[in-house]
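Box 3.1. Reading complex inputs
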Amino acid sequence: MPIQCPACGAANADHSWQCACGHYFVTTMPKVAAEPPPGDQSSTQLTSALPPQTFRLWFRGDRSTLFGIYIVNLLLTLLTVGIYYFWGKVKVRQYLYGQTEFEGDRFGYHGTGKELLIGWLKAFVILGLLVGFYFAIQAVAPGAAELLSNLLSAFFYMVLIPVAIVGSRRYRLSRTSWRGIRFSFRGHASELINIFIRGGILTAVTLGIHYPYFQHYLRKFLVNNVYYGNQRLDYDGKGRDLWHIYAVGLMLTIFTLGIYYFWFSASKARYYWERTTFGGARCRSTVTGWNLLKLKLGNFFLIVFTLGLGYPWAVVRSSRFQTENIVMEGTLDLNAIQQQAMAASATGEGFTDLLDVGVLDIDLGF
Amino acid sequence: MSLTPRPFWTGFYFDGQSPRRREVSITLAPEGLHITQQDGTALWWLYGQLRLPGSFQPGEPVRLEKKDTIGEAIVVPEGDFLGALRQFAPAEKFRQPAAAHLSARLPLLLLAAGALVMLAAGIYLWGIPALTRRAAAGMPLQWEERLGDAALDQLAPPEMRCSDAEQQKILDQIAAELVSAAPPASYRLQVLVVDNAMANAFAVPGGRIVIFRGLLEQTDRAEEVAGVMAHEIEHVLLRHPVQAVLRQLSLQALAAVLAGDSSGMASALGAAGSIGGMRYQRGDEEAADREAVHLLQAARIDPAGFIEILEKLQQGPGETPSALQYLSTHPLTANRIAELRRLAARPSEASVPLLPDVDWARLRGACAR
C-alpha cells in the first residue's frame, strides 16, 4: 500500500522514513507496513484475527552481578582519568537490557564506548565554544554580555535541552533491539523546540494553568515517535484529563505536605501508560502511590546509608519495579513487524551527560 | 569440563527482518556452525563472522550475532552452549570474560574494591591538596577576585553590610598598617563589616576580609581587631581561601566520578560535601596564626590583643552563644593559645599602642545600614 508524499506527491512504495524530496513521514507512517489482504479494506491491521493476549516484561538481573560491574567500572574509570566511563556505561546497559525479557526473549543494547566518547567530545566542543564565545563577549563588551547571558540561558532551555532530549532518545532507541529488530525514535529536535517554546510561553502567560497541556504535548511527542521496527507506539491521552490529574495532584500534595506527591506521580504514570497502544495492544500500569513511595524511600536509604555502595541494588529494585508494573493487553501480531532501523549519532547522549538534564529519565514515566 | 563437548544444540534463529522466532537445530563444527530450520533450509556461519554481544552468565540464554548484519542472530536458551562453543571455535574466539556470578569473581572484586578505596583515599589525602596548591598558585588574580565576588554576593550581600563611614575609615587604617608591614603582594585588600550578631570573620578569595558585627562588638581595643585581621590577611596571602574553594570543587568532581552516570547520586554527594561548607585544612590555621604574629610584630602592634580576643571568644558562650561560631570555623585549642603566647614572647621591636585616641566603645557598635 504505497502512500503519497504530501510534500511532492511521489509514491512512497518502500515505506521508508524519508521521501526523496526530504519530507519525513513521521505522522503519516502507516500503522503496519504489511499490505492488507486484497479486497478486504476494512481490516487494515493483520492483528484482528489473533486472540487477545496479555504480554508482560520481566527483569532477571541480580544486584550482586550489577555491583561487580559497577565496582570494576569505577576502578577503571578512576585509573583512566574518566575515559573508561563510556565503556562502563555500555557494560551497565548491556547488562540491564540483557536482563529484561519480553515474550521469552531479552532486549539487546548495541551502543559502543567509542560512539559514546565521540558523542561526548562533540557535545563538549559545542558547549565549550558557546561558553568561550560568552567570555569573549564579556571581555570585549561587558554591557552586551548582560543581554547575551539572558539570550544564552533562553537558548539553553529552549534549544539545547530539546536537542539533548531528542538526540539521546534517537541514539538510545536506535541501539536497542528485541529479537533482532531495532527500535527507533523519529521525532525531530525542531518539533520539540517548538513544543518547548510554545509550552513555556503559554505556561508563563497563563500562570501555570497551561503546564499540564505542555506535558501532554511533550508526552505525545516522546511516545508517538517511538518505533519498534516499522510499528509505532501511539499515545492517545487528552490534555484535559492530564489537567485534572495535575490539579488534584497539586492540591492534595500541598494539603498533605508533599506526601501525596507519590500518589500523584503514580496516577500520572498510570494515565500515561493506559493511553499508550502498540499495534492492537494497549499498555497498562499497575503502579500505586504506596508502592512508589516504598521504592523511592527504600532506594534513598539504600544509597545514603551505604555511602553510595547500595546504588546498584537501587537500580535493580527500580528496574524490577518498572517491568513488574507494566502490562500489555490485546491483539498483537509481532511477526508482521518489519525491520526498519535508523541511524543516529551519540552527540545528544553527550549533551545529556554534560548538561545533567533530569527530564531525560522520562522513558518509563516514573 | 568434558573432553568431548556437545555438538548438537537447539535454539532460535532471528533473520533480522522480522521478529519471527524460528526454531532451529545447531551443529557445532571446527570452522563454524550449521543452522537447520524446521522447513529444511540450512545456514552455514563461520566463527569469524560471529560476535558475542556482551557477556553472559551461566544459565542465561546465549545470543550469537552475525557481524555486519542488523539483527541476524541465534539464541540458545539452555545449557552451557558458550562452553561448547569455546572448545569448538579457534582458541582466540569468544574468549571475553563472562560476567560470572559474584562468587566466581569475588577475589578479583575484593582486590578491585581494595584498590579503589586506596586510590580514592590517595586522591583525597594527597592528590587533591597537591593539585589545589598548584592550581591556586597559578591562578590569575582576576579569576580569584571573580571567585571572591561570587562568594561575597552569597555570604555578605551588599544590603547586609554596615556602612558607618568612621568605622570603615578606622578599619581601613588598621588594614593599611598591617599591609604596609607585610611583604608586597598584588592583592587589593578590603575589609567589610556585615550586620550579623554571629562572632565570626573570614576571608574570601581575592583579598576581601569580612568581619561580622558580633565579633567587633566583643573587642575592647583596636589591637584585638588588628589580630583577627592579621590572621585573615595571612590566610589570603597564603592563598588558603582559593585553595579551599578548589578543594571543594574537586571533591565534588571526585564524588561525581565515583557516582558514575547517576546525576541524583552526584548531587546528593555534592550536597553532603557542602554542608560543612568551605573548610581550611588542619595546618592552615597554625600557619595563619604564626604568620599573623610575625605580621603584628612587624607592624609594631601588640600581639596580645589577638590572644585576648581569642580567649574572650572561648569563654564567651555564657553571654553570647553565637561567639562559638568563630571557634567552630577557627578551632581554638589550648595548644593554639599556648603556641601564640610562645610566638608573641619572642623578642621584637617594642609595640606602639594602636589608635589610642579612638572612642572604641562607640566605634565597635556602630553599624549604619
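In summary: DSSP finds eleven helices and twelve strands in chain A.
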